[in-house]
Amino acid sequence: MIAVVGATGTGKSDLGIAIADRLRAAGRNAEIINADAMQLYRGMDIGTAKLPPGERHGVPHHQLDVLDVTDEASVAAYQVAARADVERIQADGGVAVLVGGSGLYVSAVLFDLSFPGTDPELRAQLEREHEELGPGILLERLRTLDPAAATTIDARNPRRLIRALEIASRSEVVTPSLPAAPPAWRPSRILHLRRDREQLVSALHARAARMFDAGLVDEVAALREQGLEQGKTARGAIGYSQALEVLGGTSTVDHAVEATGIATRKYARRQVSWFRRYADAETLDVTGADRGDLSALARRIVP
């Protein structure tokens, strides 16, 4: 198994395709498994930079377009499905190429982590309490039950706060975050892509503008008809929440582009911190690299 990880905008999808091309040219089957949580959703294409089918070079892709926007993404469910893909690909003598930047989803495949299921009744109760009492009460309860989780949780994100408290309120022994040195699930080669911060920040703001120019607001308008605003996970995706504000008349496109760029930059910073903890990863500097450069890099990775 080969994992291509890194922050948004580092070229993971292009390198993943280039690696798969090299393996297939050498006579080995290679298939790609998506590890971007928002690319799990059907119809969320522009704002997630999902690689169009015509640019996938005929390489099979898995864990793309498997959820409706009203579904709630679950790392536990993803772990089961993605590992089943890995096992099937390897059983056929192929190479699974895991590509994505959602840190916990990547780690759920690569490392020996376990995740609790959901408790619908407890979740509904916590959601009511959050609405009626606010996040402060729930955060204080989390500090009592799981002080470590309380220090890292973003209390401004209701979904994550409620999920953390749901986990802490149950008796199962779980590992909802990445330990310092997690054991590997299966042998893998991890490629961590890095770009110069100044260049990455500039690229992410340009990317936000391109997405809105490419029709992100129209995409979100169509998804709203499918229930996007009722989706607990999908509606909060970067770019999509900003486009919803444009459609709701509370923001302009220019403001949405700027807000999307800022949110993406903050997310990229968290991704860099997450993947820095992968002690066995090979760090690859792709500053200034275009598709041709990434293809050349793939030739060095797969001689």
Describe the structure.
- The protein is an alpha/beta fold.
- 50% of the residues lie in helices and 9% in strands.
- It is built from twelve helices and six strands.
- The protein has helices at residues 12-25, 75-91, 103-110, 120-133, 135-145, 147-152, 158-168, 197-213, 216-225, 240-247, 253-275, 291-301, and strands at residues 2-6, 30-34, 61-62, 95-100, 189-194, 282-285.
- The chain has a six-stranded parallel sheet, sandwiched between helices.
- Helix 5 runs parallel beside helix 7 and helix 9 (216-225) packs across helix 10 (240-247).
- It is globular and about 60 Å long.
- It starts with a strand and ends with a helix.
- GO terms for molecular function: tRNA dimethylallyltransferase activity.
- Belongs to the IPP transferase family.
- Catalyzes the transfer of a dimethylallyl group onto the adenine at position 37 in tRNAs that read codons beginning with uridine, leading to the formation of N6-(dimethylallyl)adenosine (i(6)A).
- InterPro entries: Dimethylallyltransferase, IPT, P-loop_NTPase.
- Its EC number is 2.5.1.75.
Keywords:
six-stranded parallel beta sheet, 303 residues, alpha/beta, single chain, 50% helix
Major sheet: size, sense and barrel closure? 6 strands, parallel
- Helix/strand-derived class? alpha/beta
Unreliable spans are 171-176
- How much beta, percentage-wise? 5-15%
DSSP helix count? Answer: 12
Q: Which descriptor suits the 3D outline? A: globular
